[in-house]
Design brief:
four-stranded mixed β-sheet; globular; six-stranded mixed β-sheet; 2-enoyl-CoA Hydratase, Chain A, domain 1; alpha/beta; Pdz3 Domain
Amino acid sequence: MRRLWILLLAAALQACGGGGGGGSTTPVANSGNPQACTVADQRQHVLDFMRSEYYWYSQMPAPDANAATLDAYFRSMLYQPTDRFSFSESTAAYEQLFDEGTFTGYGYSLAVVDADNAILRVRTVEPQGPAYAAGLRRGDTIVSINGLTPAQVLAGGAGPVSAEGVQRTIVVRDTAGNQKTLQMVSKTFPLTPVQDVKVVDATRNGQPVKVGYLGYSEFVTYSLADLQNAISAFTQQGATELVLDLRYNGGGDVATSRDLASLVAGARVAGQLFAALRYNDKNQASNSDYRFIAPSASIPSLSRVFVIASGSTASASELVINGLKPFLNVVTVGETTYGKPYGFEPFSYCGTTYNAVNFEVFNAAGVGGYTAGLPPTCPAPDDLDHALGDPNEGRFKVALGYIATGQCAQQAQSAAISSRPQATIGEMPRPGMVRR
């Protein structure tokens, strides 16, 4: 992963890339076919799928007949190093995230702010998870997890938990320096993709202005009503500027990406091309255009949008940025994004979902291919000392400064250039963009 080291810890959240579509099948093991779901049967189905649907099928290596697992067999066919995106996961994990909208674990992720000295800080906490209920907050510094030091955690201790009822004790220091011991028990809880919806007062050219701030973590269909309500609230409160925080959003559903972009751009772009999906030469009939729709709500006369981004901003999140650029001034604040202009129509078989790249995406200007990521307009480091949505949080503050002055803060640029990219451990979705 470009500029991002990911370890899975503490009930690792499965990818923002599962999905149903593209004629996926999940046969029943006792279907009467004695070969169904044997290793040989599963390998053949995966091989057939890859030879037909994989975007780089013509450059696909021969599968490794000696692969120890089905995942290893699948990965042996990936076109490396170009394809750093495809992966497999359990179908149950995909269905839990995309269909049920729940997660089993604690609901937090950590940032490795100093790997050499093993300094870990809390990056995100799910509002309805047990970690939040126990008192864990963004910016807390880890002292120990189940008695393990941060160095031991970095070495793989306190590993993944995906079952309910597992107790965990976390000792942290908060941003004020107070030490606290937190007890939590893993459980299944509803995810909250839309968070930190607020309107803040700011200035623009010396005049007062209201700015809507929207934090968004996964592109999932069940979040659409909350997105619509957020934009409606901004309009009702008189917001004329919008800050969309996608810094930790690894992607998700293409249609939901289009729907959010439509809410941002408004009715004036309805019917215009948002994204063109292009498949391999065997599947040209699947090529499709996603067009902006007439939104249920929008901010009148919005001519620009500020997007807070990082190396974790991937796939469907990048699709929003790229898709809006031909129609709005998109000002990005933070870091260069992940770089994933590709998507999946996942194939599910015998309890495993294979997310192999099927298509590439382009915007209305024909721009795609951003595998190096989308660079920020205003570089700025992440700020774990403040809550997301706090006007004093570093990246949000840079966006508000740009609204006030029309330019990036010089100190933010310098800080970003000298800062080291943060690694992350915890419940991080893998980058994904899914056509469902």
